[in-house]
């Protein structure tokens, strides 16, 4: 399956059918399960066959099991390390720098207050503007 409304070709009951993501998303659970089993291929199909019957018989069960197996787990320490390496480039505006920091902060698992403090500290330490550094240090 592809995102953003692209069409995916699948074979159902020996009939070649074009199915869009929206059609899959709004189909009943049994149809979703049939489609996913026909799209995923042999290797993932074998994983589904090894699931307990109650899990393998529902779209939600299959989806959750595959997500647990294949979705990337974030390493918060690594994400924070990358966040702390970020510094403003000479040709980068303050807005661009802050936008990049905010994007990186989303993956650091900070709580709300910690995120604001981490952003502020990183801006103080790594921005090009001495004026802004002094201004933020006065607060």
Class by SSE composition? mainly alpha
Molecular shape: elongated
The largest pleated sheet is described as:
2 strands, antiparallel
Count of individual helical segments: 9
**Beta-strand content bin:** 5-15%
Number of DSSP strand runs: 2
Mean pLDDT: 80
Helix content: 55-70%
Cα separation of the termini: 50 Å
Instruction: Report Rg.
Output: 23 Å
Biggest sheet: strands side by side, in what order? 1-2
Uncertain stretches of 5 or more adjacent residues:
1-16
Helix-strand pattern: EEHHHHHHHHH
What key phrases describe this protein's structure?
2 strands; 63% helix; disordered N terminus; elongated; 139 residues
Characterize the structure shown.
The protein has helices at 21-26, 29-39, 42-49, 53-56, 59-70, 76-85, 94-105, 112-126, 130-138; strands at 7-12, 15-20. It has 139 residues and is mainly α. The protein has a two-stranded antiparallel sheet with strand order 1-2.
Fold blueprint:
Elements: E1 7-12, E2 15-20, H1 21-26, H2 29-39, H3 42-49, H4 53-56, H5 59-70, H6 76-85, H7 94-105, H8 112-126, H9 130-138
Antiparallel strand pairs: 1-2
Helix pairs in contact: 7-8, 8-9
């Amino acid at each position: 399956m592809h995102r953003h409304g692209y069409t995916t070709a699948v074979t159902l009951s020996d009939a070649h059918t074009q199915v869009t993501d929206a059609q899959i998303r709004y189909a009943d659970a049994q149809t979703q399960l049939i489609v996913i089993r026909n799209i995923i291929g042999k290797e993932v199909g074998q994983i589904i066959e090894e699931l307990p019957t109650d899990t393998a018989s529902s779209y939600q069960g299959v989806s959750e099991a595959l997500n647990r197996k294949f979705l990337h787990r974030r390493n918060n320490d690594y994400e924070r390390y990358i966040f702390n390496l970020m510094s403003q480039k000479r040709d980068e505006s303050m807005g661009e720098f802050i936008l990049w920091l905010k994007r990186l902060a989303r993956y650091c698992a900070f709580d709300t207050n910690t995120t604001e403090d981490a952003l502020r500290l990183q801006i103080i330490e790594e921005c090009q503007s001495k004026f802004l550094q002094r201004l933020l240090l006065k607060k």
